[in-house]
Structure formats: C-alpha cells, structure tokens
Amino acid sequence: DQQVKQNSPSLSVQEGRISILNCDYTNSMFDYFLWYKKYPAEGPTFLISISSIKDKNEDGRFTVFLNKSAKHLSLHIVPSQPGDSAVYFCAAINLSSGTYKYIFGTGTRLKVLA
Amino acid sequence: DSGVTQTPKHLITATGQRVTLRCSPRSGDLSVYWYQQSLDQGLQFLIHYYNGEERAKGNILERFSAQQFPDLHSELNLSSLELGDSALYFCASSKLGELFFGEGSRLTVL
Asked: Across chain B, which distance is largest between two alpha carbons, in Å?
C-alpha cells in the first residue's frame, strides 16, 4: 500500500521556467510533509517542509503548497536552474503519533534544460 | 556533509552471505532510521531506533535485523542474501522533524 505517491517519474523544464512537482497521499493522519532532493551517488538532502496547519511555505525559489482536502502537495521551483536537476522525493509523517515513521514517495526526476 | 556517516560505501557479496552495514548519526541526534532504495524505487522505510530502542518497523524482512548501541551508532544486518537485496541502504538521523541522510551503502549481491 503506497501511502505517498509521486505519479510523474520524470519532468523536463526549461531553465528560468517554473517546475511543479506533485505528490499525493492517502493517510489523512499525516501532519507533516517534507521534500528532499537527491543527486546521484549522494544521500537525499532536505529541501523544504510544511505542517498540516499551513497551506503554503516558501523558502527562496522553493514553495510547497498543501491541499489537505485533496490530500495533495506540490513543490514549485521558480526560476528553475540547471543545478536543480535531481530526483525529488516527497515524504509524509504523522508526528503526533509519536512513531516517527517517515513515508517516502517513489521520486520524480527533474531535468532542467539550459 | 549531513554529518551522518555510513560504512562501507560499496559492498559486493554472494547470495547466501551475511553483511553488516554501519551508521553513525549526527552528533546529538538520538534517532536512527534505515531505508532501502532498490533500482528506480522510492525510499522504503525499514526501521527506526531512538536512543537504543526500536520505535517503528516498516517493510523489513525477517532476514534483516538492526540495533542501536549505547554510543548511538547503528548496524543493519542482512543475512541469507538474495539477488533482490541488491540496493542502496540509507541511514538517517533526525532533529526537529527533519531527516538527515548519510551517503548510503550500495550493496550488490551476485
């Protein structure tokens, strides 16, 4: 049972344009969501997060939007840069449960074209 | 550099063998998580330890076991290895809701 889904395995975007990466989840108990970026031969690195009490969180070029009714979150990167080319994972957790079980999606490979 | 150290970085072994992967969390972090990433797959949660105690279990096979020692480092033991166990194994430690990952141990089972 895949509780966190990233239905687009890959995405190509022109440099300078907006990249939108999507993530859907099924467990309504998730209350904290994170995005991670992964380059080849490296571990995933934290990018941005959002609590379920918010619907938007912004950090520089990165903005995460949360739509709880649709159980959907998205990561916007504006403007996209070639260095953003990586695999992006969304993750979700039920922090209030105390079990601290982070569930990850399968990832979306973003390619930013120069 | 996340501060999480994993050894070995690469490991090649044969089916039926047993290996141990080691993880040292960031200084001060009490939690250690283990994840498996198979080819073109997402990060599959295996197990979580907090201050030496198992806190949560994911899709971890019975052939796999883990522990966290008093100095907070953790080991993931994989036994009776099968071809399908070939994967990247990541360890992560956490603080304030954020996971910090090591660079992973790539296991190849031939």
From this structure: 40
Three-class secondary structure assignment of B59-96 = CCCCCEEEEECCCCCEEEEECCCCHHHCEEEEEEEEEC
List chain A pLDDT tens, one digit each, 114 residues: 679 999 999 999 999 999 999 999 999 999 999 999 999 888 999 999 999 999 999 999 999 999 999 999 999 999 999 999 999 999 999 988 877 789 999 999 999 999
CB contact under 8 A, A89 and B42: yes
Residue type, B63: R
SS3 A96: helix
Residue among B41, B58, B104 minimizing CB distance to A43:
B104
Q: Is A57 exposed, middle or buried (0-12, 13-18, 19+ CB in 10 A)?
A: middle
Note whether A95 contacts B: Cβ–Cβ < 8 A.
Answer: yes
Window A:15-74, CB contacts with B under 8 Å: 32, 34, 36, 41-46, 49
Q: Under an 8 A CB cutoff, do B100 and A104 touch?
A: no
Q: Which residues of B touch A44 (CB under 8 A)?
A: 43, 90, 99, 101
What number of other Cβ atoms are within 10 A of residue B18's Cβ? 11
Of B56, B90, B102, the CB nearest to A100: B56
Q: B59 falls in which pLDDT band (50, 70, 90)?
A: confident
